[in-house]
Design goal:
Keywords: DNA-binding, Hydrolase, Transcription, Transcription regulation. The protein has helices spanning 3-20, 26-48, 83-86, 94-97, 205-217, 265-271, and strands spanning 62-68, 73-79, 91-92, 104-107, 125-130, 133-146, 161-166, 178-191, 197-201, 221-226, 232-237, 257-260. With 283 residues, it is of the alpha+beta class. The strands form two sheets. Strands 1-2-3-4-7-8-6-5 form an eight-stranded mixed β-barrel. A four-stranded antiparallel β-sheet has the order 10-11-9-12, with helices on one face.
Length: 283
């Protein structure tokens, strides 16, 4: 994201806040606009290996990316689950994250980022990516608990993922003690964030070369190795476009590619919808 676009979104946030502060429209507007800036900060964080604030006065920063492939959910998760963080995105309980063999707990508002939990079902796939890689989870349990009585214990659900939001979704007033708790177990170990992928080009060598040259020139990939005939090549996504592994075959309407990689073809198919901006890379 260029500096001018970032400044425009910041200006939009401030202006919209001034106009809509007294109305309920400001809450979802702020949540949506903020995710654009958070995605940019997350990409910079992956590239630099350090925490990057989404805007200068922010008291939070991105720590992970949460995806629900079959619901088209792709959200940046912030450090901390305080009210100031949750206004802009889902927030992770950092105390739980620091524990060994404990569940990761992420909280979001029921009327913005975590409104999709209304339709979550057991068996659905969740994906959580951070600087260490990506873990694939499957939803096991969905419960409604009273937070005044029940306390979530991260160590009681080793290596799991817990999503929490207020309940019920249609409550007329906020501040109740009921919580919807979604518990998911890891079904795949951590996948490296930037693995190499074997790409078999089902097209002519010149077209394949132009396709990969175009992606490399845009900063999406770098070559690692290739076969002599040029039809089998190993490429690596750059930090600036970590999602490229899920959509090389979506990069252009005239390019057909088939990617075989470590996360498997089923997960690959599910994650294609999470990629942004790659489709026009060769245009």
């Amino acid at each position: 994201m260029t500096l001018s676009i970032r400044n425009f979104i910041l200006a939009a946030l401030v202006a919209a806040g001034m106009i809509l502060t007294s109305t309920a429209l400001w809450i979802p507007a702020k949540a949506r606009l903020a995710q654009w800036l958070l995605a940019d900060a997350w990409a910079e964080s992956l590239d630099s290996g350090t925490a990057v604030k989404p805007w200068p006065w922010a008291d939070h920063w991105p720590v992970a990316r949460l995806s629900v492939p079959n619901m088209d959910i792709d959200q940046i998760v912030l450090a901390g689950d305080s009210g100031s963080s949750l206004a802009f995105g889902p927030g992770e309980n950092m105390q739980a994250q620091a524990m060994t063999h404990a569940a990761r707990i992420i909280t979001g508002h029921r009327d913005t980022h975590f409104s999709f939990l209304r339709n979550i079902q057991p068996g659905q796939t969740l994906m959580l990516s951070d600087h260490n890689g990506t873990v694939i989870y499957q939803v096991d349990q969905i419960q409604v608990v009273d937070s005044a009585v029940t306390r979530l214990m991260p160590t009681a659900f080793p290596n799991g993922l817990i999503l929490v939001t207020c309940y019920p979704f249609d409550a007329l007033t906020a501040g109740g003690t009921l919580r919807l708790v979604v518990m998911a177990s890891a079904v795949e170990p951590v996948k490296p964030l930037h693995p190499g992928y074997n790409v078999h080009m089902a097209i002519s060598r010149p077209t394949a070369t132009r396709a990969l040259d175009g992606l490399a020139a845009k900063g999406f990939i770098q070559r690692i190795s290739s076969e002599q005939d040029g039809r089998e090549q190993t490429v690596q996504p750059t930090a600036a476009a970590v999602e490229i592994h899920a959509a090389l075959n979506e990069a252009s309407g005239v390019v057909t590619t088939r990617i075989k990689h470590t996360i498997g073809e089923e997960v690959f198919a599910d994650t294609v919808n999470n990629v942004r901006g790659v489709r026009s890379a060769l245009k």
